[in-house]
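Appendix B, example 12.
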Amino acid sequence: MKRWLRNLTTVCFLALFACFAAAPMGVSAYGLTQSNPAANSITVSWEAESDALAYHVYAGEDYATAPLVQDLPASSTSVTITGLKPGTEYYVSVKYDETSYSGGINTWSVGSDNFRTTPAKVANVHETEWYYFLKSFTVEWNTQTGADGYEYKITQGNGKKLVTKTEKSRYTHRLSYSKKVSNSMIYVVQVRSYAKICGKKYYGKWSNKCYCFTQPRIQYARVLGNKLAVKWGRVAGATGYEIYVSTKPKKGYKKVKTVGKNASSAIITKLKGKGFSSRQSYYVYVLTVKKVGKHKNTSGRVYYWNTKSSTDSLF
């Protein structure tokens, strides 16, 4: 009985060993390496898999939904993925097929990682706030997923350089400046992104110039008859002004008039097709406009005025 049990144990062990020996074993990923960084493409390479039948390349901005972008023959050890956006981080994954022990096809991973195109020109640099009494202003821009950070420079409208500074975060999308700011001065801000890729630091082009200046101070805003009269102080260097009105202090503003650079007052006849009533409170703000070529720059929207109280308030 003992001999039979010993023999049975030996047979089971050999059978179990055979099962493990016959099972397909995964090959550890050799990983991917980026080379030759470019604005619109990513090139990655890998070590050849000896049993590979074909390779499959996946790439996208979201790793969870990265689509198949290319199938490659078994002899491939690199790929260049084209048609990409500058200044963007992409998830890249390479897989390969090999014949399984049962005659089917197993798919294994060569490797995957996040890779970046070289920086793009920063877009949508614009003033968002100018605090008249604090003498400070804020600028924002569109971030780039492939950036390591941003560099900005500020000059006065007369060309005098004030500051050049680097923000070492890809998530930075705004700057606030308050050093000796004058409410009568125009400031010019430019931003560029940078990224360190394959051991080298790359810079994008400087953004278009953002002209920063104060929101006009309203001297009065009141209803006269069925019309609204608004007067403000002019801003040197402006090319025009835009007037906005609402019946609520925090929302619902409509642009009701645009005037030229020499204007310092306006008469508004209608809001949403209706005349004005002295029984109603209206809320008003004015933006400074400066056009440079085809590009329009506007001041930040920080203060509004109430026709009933003739005072200013922060948004």
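DSSP finds one helix and 24 strands in the chain. The two ends are 93 Å apart (CA to CA).
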